[in-house]
Amino acid sequence: MWDKLKRIWKLKDLRNSILFVLGMLVIYRFAAHIPIPGINFENLDKLLGSNQALGFLDLFSGGGIRNFSIMMLGVAPYITASIIVQLLTMIVPKLEALSKEGEYGRKKITSYTRWLTIPLAVIQTFSMISVLRNSPYQVIDNMTAWAMFLAVITITAGTMFLMWLGELISEKKIGNGISLLIFVGIVSALPGTIQSLIVNFDKSQILNLVLFGVIAIATIVGVVFITQGQRNIPISYTRHMSGSKVYGGVNTHLPMRVNQAGVIPIIFAIAMMMFPPMIASLFVNAKTAWISGFATSVTNLWQNQIFYTVMYFVLVIAFTYFYTAVIFHPDKISDNLQKQGGFIPGIRPGRETANYLQYVSNRILLAGAIFLGLIAVLPFLVQVFFTIGNVSLGGTSLLIVVSVVIEIIKQIQAQLVMRDYDQV
């Protein structure tokens, strides 16, 4: 490992790319601590501690919500815009045709995503501030319309700046920029967690702490196993002759990942779980009694940990199947294999191949969906059995961290292999 690190450091262009990425991440962490005035931070901490969804978003923003900084939303609006555009690309024929136009189409779709990020950031900022204003903890007091306007504009600008940083990082091919920003936001909470553990350490909790560590290590191993897990479908290509040369006759495989959807279903589920209480919080103080009572009931229902956990688990599984259906197209794969002279041994080309691929996908997807659901509700499950100060085990955080680390390693290894090829 040390030899590989020395080799990476000796390659000037790769070293400069890594240093550039580190510099962008430092800028991001600096900006994440620039606060917007007018906030009662003590009450904000209480609200985040009592609201699991807001706590999750705060984790994604690298503490941006807790600091009420100009980076409060993190890259959430950009991720939402990317998901919407990706779904529309599957539905709208013009966008689907544009996605097949190579580099030009990719740039146009990226441009649409950027423009869509702006109104989404405005809406999400306004909604977030409204939730904080209407919370029972009195997080925001006496914010005028002008102050609200300035806050919305500032936070939206911070999101666009963060999106730009992410694209600059992606250009260096040292991991995906947006994923790296989320990764750094999650890891940045680690020192505070360790400090809290040391300050609140109790000798009577040593056994719980050891078991907690064992569960954390087992979770990391499970995340790596599922993230890397795949089913290899054997593919054979028929032989054909062109003149005196024989082509084809190659045996290969089609990899089908256990977790094809990644962390996207969890993000979808969080968005859906946040929507009802966020809307309800706007009507808690309504003058009409039944509206206020209904809004209060919805808010209280979402504060019920059992209800929240069960709904969260079900939504993650449902969105895993939904998103996989959006990105996985067995009919297209079957057509491409048939055009290239490929086939699955024992399966007829065409419709039977598509049906077989769909059957295999559904079988392995069940394991991936249940895994994602368990990862999503892992903090609640751990808290039921373990109480160790303010320390919690975030399965989603581990999933993101492990996935990003694996991606970075793969991209750096690919660059090293490419340089070896150039030297030959």
**CATH top-level class of the largest domain:** Mainly Alpha
Structural class assignment: mainly alpha
**What is the H/E string?**
HHHHHHHHHHHHEEEEHHHHEHH
Strand order of the largest sheet: 4-1-5
Can you tell me the CATH architecture of the largest domain?
Answer: Orthogonal Bundle
Low-pLDDT ranges = none
Radius of gyration: 24 Å
Largest sheet properties = 3 strands, antiparallel
What distance separates the N and C termini? 23 Å
Offer a concise description of the structure.
The chain is mainly alpha-helical. It contains 18 helices and five strands.
Task: Summarize this structure as a short list of keywords or feature phrases.
18 helices; Preprotein translocase SecY subunit; mainly alpha; two-stranded antiparallel sheet; three-stranded antiparallel sheet; 424 residues
